[in-house]
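Researcher: Quick test of sequence recovery. Tokens follow.
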């Protein structure tokens, strides 16, 4: 479903972003019971917030089941805890409120690592790296060449912020409710370009081989696992889990299964962003 704010203008969009940020901060202020390892073991379930439309991270397969790297990783965690994994589909707009209000115990959901988010959630560790680019027909190689052109992005995502900040003021940035809708907008010809990530472009290339290319690479982005700030014990457990399985090669095995490459080199620390992984 398309969310079109073309008539709102850049100032209006920034105001809307500020309101959304304030809502996230308000959600963070709502007290929620900490998710402890003992509590999770007692109830027999750990609940993960996941995406369902971003292969190979997480998607619904032909049998209607969750599949992907995020699912394999969460299943590993649940198995070590001796519990079942439960899943709650989330969006860019509601993932942090779902976490800080206790609707989910942990986020493994293609979540970019940023200092502003670290103020309201607790990152465990980076678990993947992706490149953020603007994709479209061959020819354009500079951001200023997108003047007057339409670009699809997922509303409220880090890609939305990156494209809004980088694109010319007269670029027609069209915001969609989810990543799949933004991709379909490009494939169907509703827009000329797509602001997206390397893993999402795999689906574009499969649907239209050779038709689109990464015109402009904006940045490399690290993705993180997160828990609520009050769930300190769970965060520390997850940090130890990640450190142990990065060392023994298990993370690389499941990463290679999903992406065809070894587990990437990820930073042990990032300025202004504490991790529970030591």
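Model:
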């Amino acid at each position: 479903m398309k969310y079109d704010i073309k008539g709102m203008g850049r100032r209006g969009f920034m105001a809307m972003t500020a309101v959304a940020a304030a809502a996230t901060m308000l959600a963070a202020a709502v007290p929620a019971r900490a998710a402890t390892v003992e509590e999770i073991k007692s109830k027999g379930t750990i609940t993960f917030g996941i995406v369902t439309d971003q292969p190979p991270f997480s998607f619904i397969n032909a049998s209607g089941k969750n599949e992907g790297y995020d699912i394999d990783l969460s299943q590993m965690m649940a198995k070590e805890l001796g519990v079942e994994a439960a899943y709650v589909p989330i969006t860019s707009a509601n993932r942090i409120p779902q976490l800080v209000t206790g609707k989910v115990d942990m986020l493994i959901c293609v979540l970019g690592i940023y200092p502003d988010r670290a103020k309201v959630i607790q990152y465990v560790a980076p678990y993947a790296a992706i490149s953020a680019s603007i994709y479209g027909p061959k020819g354009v190689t500079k951001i200023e060449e997108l003047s007057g052109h339409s670009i699809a992005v997922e509303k409220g995502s880090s890609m939305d912020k990156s494209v809004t900040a980088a694109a010319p003021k007269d670029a027609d940035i069209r915001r969609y409710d989810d990543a799949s809708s933004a991709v379909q907008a490009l494939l169907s010809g509703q827009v000329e370009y797509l602001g997206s990530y390397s893993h999402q472009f795999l689906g574009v290339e499969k649907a239209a081989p050779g038709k689109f290319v990464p015109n402009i690479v904006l940045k490399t982005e690290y993705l993180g696992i997160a828990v609520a700030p009050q769930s300190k014990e769970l965060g520390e457990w997850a940090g130890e889990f990640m450190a142990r399985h990065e060392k023994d090669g298990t993370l690389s095995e499941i990463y290679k299964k999903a992406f065809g490459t070894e587990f990437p080199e990820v930073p042990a620390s990032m300025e202004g962003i504490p991790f529970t992984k030591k």
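The chain has two domains: 22-130+222-259, 131-220.
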